[in-house]
Queue: 3 jobs
Job 1
Amino acid sequence: MGQTMKVPCVILRGGTSKGIYLKAADLPKNNCERDDLICKIFGSPDVRQIDGLGGADPLTSKCAIIGPPSRPDADVDYTFGQVSITAKYIDYSGNCGNISAGVGPFAIDEGLVTATEGVTRVRIHNTNTGKIIVAEVPTVAGKAAVTGEHVIAGVPGTGAKIMLDYSDTAGAVTGKLLPTGNSTDVLVVEGFGQVVASIVDAANVVIFVRAKDIGLTGIETPKELGSRPDMLNLLEKIRGTAAVKIGMAKNLEDALQRIPAFPMLAFVSPATDYQDFTTGQIIKAAEMDFVSRLMFMQVMHKTYAGTGTICTGVAAKIPGTVVNELASASNKPVIKFGHPAGIIEVEVATEKRESNLVLTRAAMSRTARRIMDGNVYVGR
């Protein structure tokens, strides 16, 4: 037996994240053995992930496990794992929309899905949520297209435009679009007091609060917020309190100690001019409906999570939410909001069926690119 073992893998950028894509057939069937192997592939736990492929950043410590479909209305199964950097732990409690953008191209290029010329529709069963995501992937000569003119904020250059429709993902985690049944709830946060929040479950659960209610402007940069441990602690307490309220954690201590990636938390504010923290360019208020900042694994997301994008767009359409109150274009089919590195768009359509609000369209555009493929070597 050799001192190391090799595992086939692909490193692929999906949207504004980067992940390691693995085939289920190449991993142990036992979940504990599988997770142990994946942590070794990433080099976790280690703050630099120096002995693995992880990039020591929450946006690059992501894993996609792809396999044959387990249900007849899907083309592939896809399991997302957020690999902890500092602990031997993988969070499977939610999905990542950016990493989802790479699943269709991966499935096509690996021969798991037969391409059709022009655009190939890939029905992706996300096992984390039990929901179907439909990816519309541009294809050329039987492979996923890479080059194109589409631009997404937070990624240099251009690429082929991939559309992802999440309209099947209402109640993805909790079973309800509004987990508490309310557009807003008052959370009692330890050491702070009351704060008004909207808890929405579409693609993933996100807790939304007004920036002004917690002493923020709403246009803070990741570095600015990262230098305020008191505010990071408050935001995490708000997230933990909401997680307990909707049954995603047993108690606040459980919510804080396990340090899961989900639910996420966002603080929203009115549209205003501010600087793109990556380029220094001014992002204009006139080009957006509102501003949002997303917390992910206890740090501010440098752009915006894909599933968080869907949930934020959907929240803007739900009457009475703190997002809807700020969304100047909540009656339009496309919601545009600002994040630290630009503006993102999400197509949202809803309709009332009896007394329920039903999602009929919840789509965003992404690009994706295969960066490398081959084998990763890990110690036995």
Job 2
Amino acid sequence: MKQEERKVCFDYDLQIEAYRFYGIMQKFPNHFHEYYVIGFIESGQRKLSCKNKNYVINSGDLIFFNPFDNHACEQIDNKTLDYRCLNIKPEIMRKVVKEITGRDYLPYFTNPVAFRSEHAQLLQHLHQMIMDELLDLEKEETFYFLMEQLIEEYCEIVADIKLDKVEQKIAKICNFIEMHYAEPISLDDLVGICDMNKYTLLRSFARKRGITPYRYLQTVRINEAKKLLELGMKPLEVAMQTGFVDQSHFSNCFKDCIGLTPGQYRNIYIDEIK
């Protein structure tokens, strides 16, 4: 079996993260990110679930997650996974899109998988330059040319959508969770802010968001924890400030969703802080 390797680099020129997971077998539970993910499979076959649809992804396939797209994946070929991805915050994506298109908007990737994409090789080349921490013209040039192609081929501009009554209630619940994530939250608390019984709330939330309220809460906590770790805060302090019962629970949840321990993630940014 391949020796497991997990590496993350933050590129200060492009202001994006690059992940490299090599030889892993980890199953990732249903979760979401607040940023865009553009990744590809180097080797290994996985079952991907995204927004309540299932896909089988293989070597050469690209994957796209918009912010808040719920997704989960697991290995199905009994072999390890080799995977690379770029994580791009919405504010950086908006800046890049405006530079490329001249228009101020956030793009929306219409499908989470591009099978056997011709762009995989260019993405791999860009990713490796970031991993090698290169500071040259080719890296930035490759990034912009790649993003131009991906936006043109796989994205659309989404018009504002009016929310129905159920969606308005779910949005209210999400807002409550995002405001009170550091506090203990019960199902009674959520029922108290919307006109639903417990079962209807759970079913409606899962149907609309593709994720349960509890998993939504945990994901919000993890996303907030990342921001604190990036500032150099110690994992124990972060656990206490983001609503986890203890550091062990925090570490397990963080690795389940991110693929790294809180300490490993913090170390990406600690040298820059110093």
Job 3
Amino acid sequence: MSQPLDTDALSLWLAAHLPGFRGPVTATKFSGGQSNPTYRLDTPSGAYVLRRKPPGVLLKSAHAVEREFRVQQALGATDVPVARMHVLCEDPDVIGSAFYVMQAVAGRNFDDPALPDVSPGDRSAMIGAMNACLAAIHEVDIDAVGLSDFGPSGNYYARQLDRWTKQYRATQTDDLPDMDALIGWLGANMPADDGQRRLVHGDYRLDNLLFAPDSPRIAAVLDWELSTIGHPYADLAAVIMQWSMPHTAEGRGLAGVDRAALGLWEDARFIDAYCARRGLAGIERFEFYLAFCHFRMAAILQGVRKRALDGNASDPERGLQLGAYVPQFARQGLEATRK
């Protein structure tokens, strides 16, 4: 197990801070995640899940497990399904980095958006649940749940463009003219702030959802690391962007898939259903939001690639595989600007 967990130190700390906890702890690292290492903890008092910051030198504002803990704790009483938060440890001396422990939610997780081994009817219902859950996130009353200060005010896209451009430059390993052109286009075509200030997940896609073991219901939304207060269309466009990618283990898209035959939704149906749920007449200039999501994903995956090359990625081999998609995201982002 890469990045091993000091289960003895962890057990001592949890015994003092988590009511009802009894050690010892057996930890099993989940595979596939590229940011904050995540572990299942099996103990005599039950099962838990731990997420921690990775070791090593980290980029400013990255891997903020404290923010993940806060937003999920705040959402506990809303219609958005999240795991129950147990305890946060901000002291890096306990296991080497900050971490939090949450409920272990039983459910099914899918990397393949074509949803193999699921019936066409259930596939359609699961995409519908995904749509309803996204609308629910964007309808959260941020004042009522104490998240009004969870992100700064001002134009969300200008803020995000600045942040992720800096992150991209800090981790850049190759010259990519398409990425440079995409950054320039986004800056020159920034939409005016329309006043929508909502909770956004920041990485909303199928593989960050946990479905109930025996139904299309979403049991928990996972991986809130990029969540903030911002503009909701970025989350919506991120779903459409992901579906445009190749239907491979790394691409995790639906390009070339006969969606109708499988019971999967087309892009327009997903967008229309979302607008209906939120009472929107439609979305203008959707190409900007789609191009923005390609840019941000390219920047994220460049960071994944750099961590893999530096030897501190959660899953180095997969990190290099995903990092190879940076040029494609940049190229497709430019293509989106012309549609």
